[in-house]
Amino acid sequence: MKLSFKTILPIILISALLILLTGCFNVPSNESPGLTPGTITGIIAAPCCTTSVESADGETTSPEYWCYYCEKEWKLQDGVEVVLTYGEDEVATTITDENGEYTFTDVPPGKNYVITTYCPDYDDDRPLVKDVALELVEGGSFDTKITDIVSTSLGLVVDFLVDFTILGPEDIVLDEVIADKPDFPNFPKFKKLIPEVVRVLEACQNVDTDGDLQDALCRAAEEVGKETIPTLVLGCGPGFTPPPPPPPGPCAGNVAPSISSVLLDGTPVLVGDTIHVLVGTPYVVTVNASDDGIANPLTYSATIDGNPVGSVVSNVITVTPSVAGTFEVFVNVNDGCTITSWGPVTVIVDPRTYILTTAALPSEGGSVSGAGTYNSGTVVPITASPNLGWTFTGWSGDLSGTNNPSNVTMDGNKSVTANFEENADVTINYVATTGGSVDNTSETLAPTTGVAVGSTAAADSGYHFVNWADSGSAEVSTNLYFVPAKVGGLNVAETYTANFAENTGCLLVKVFNPTGEGFGAGTVTLFNSSMTFGPYDTLANGWYTFTNIPVGTYTLKADRPGVASWVRPSIEVIIVIGTECQEISLHYE
Q1: Are both 486 and 381 inside the same structural domain?
Q2: Which of 180, 291, 337, 422 has the fewest CB atoms within 10 Å distance of its CB?
Q3: For residue 17, what is the DSSP state?
Q4: In the prediction, which pLDDT does 467 show?
Q5: What are 240-259's pLDDT values in tens digits?
Q6: How many Cα atoms are found within 13 Å in the side-chain-facing hemisphere of 155?
Q7: Residues 397-408: tens digit of each pLDDT
Q8: How many CA atoms lie within 13 A of 584 on its CB side?
């Protein structure tokens, strides 16, 4: 049959449309959304086949009533074909392993799947044994345990009702039958089917062609079918021959759609992959599939984290995810007859990030917090911190105003500047006391960035420099050139004084009598052309100390009233500046 090739939405697209890409475009509704597939498992045991291996005892594979009606030994089947059908549709085929176990994966949820095993010893397409997966829930699993007489009988009943009534798998109710095991008091016709199945199966005969078994099967199917349609009549009787099947429906011979490839921006995507996409970024998605074209045009649905979503039909679609997160996604392709599931794929939608850059202007004015890389939509608090001597004046760039702290919403890369202004200038004064001068009397400068020049003190003639002192008279320097230091990193307003003192000296006079002994009954006088100090009485030992005498050249003389015969001594003295007294001796003769 000629194939028509179609392009379908991949796992990423569906997720993008309905959960990950909310708001990108509208998705048509679908009354039959895709469902998360599940798994059916079981064990095949049977008589009459050369594929038999060890005996099946049921102790570890099924409840204690396993094969309640078996008469011969049943053995596990290694390498036999197992076919899974849903109504009239073949869903999948597999082979048992050495333990008789089989597994069907990616099975859509549904009721009354029939499992049929075929022995390679026969060429008449007869079933070996059957089983029924009563209900596979979405994303779940169903273990049919091990095949036996009852499971085969149930499988025959389900197939009979599907083939010869209007009932589908979803309509057939087996719950009451299962609840009646193992004696089936409420289903006597089903109970009569069981020995017929035992007779035919354990004799290695064909259950499809045995007349007595088919009569019992018709009656049992009618009994079970009445659970759904109480008035059901199948016309069963001895030697019953099933009526011819209804004419082929629109799905007869239909081949399930097949997904061949999935591309994301031209790159292949495989089942089981983990895909990273970026929120807010457009992507081009293409998925290729083939179908036989018998039934309806392909429709596509998906499940995301187990939640069914709507369907779409498209070749190539550009999608833009708007929600970040991690999602497990399946795609279901439906041609109107059969659903093919594809997945899972893990889709990780990463958040978009933006960079926040901050700056201080000028840089020495302060600092700004908040710079970094943030997810889109993050509200970032940002704070300007002025340095000592500076004041924050406002924001510029991608933020305005004077609120501090403030907030920036990261919907793109942002650059924010905090503006600072230095505080008012300060004035430093330099003054001098009597006896000297300063070369710089004042300077005005910025509190932080200003650099003080300072001032140099100069003493007048007859005076000398003592020190620099602040307004509290505390000495700050003894150097002639003085530059005030910053206080706590700031220039501060202050008045500094250069102190001067007159140049003076000290003279200790010792007066001796003609015999060389101290004699203090006289006076001493120190004088020059401009000033005179004394006469002063000497001490008892003949000593006297002149203090604070201006530097210069003087005449020093002693006088002894009442002793005319002594020659009064007189000497020239040079007084020099100093803290220790000069010593001079005067001798009478």
Answers
A1: no
A2: 180
A3: I
A4: 96
A5: 565 555 566 677 667 788 88
A6: 26
A7: 999 999 999 999
A8: 24
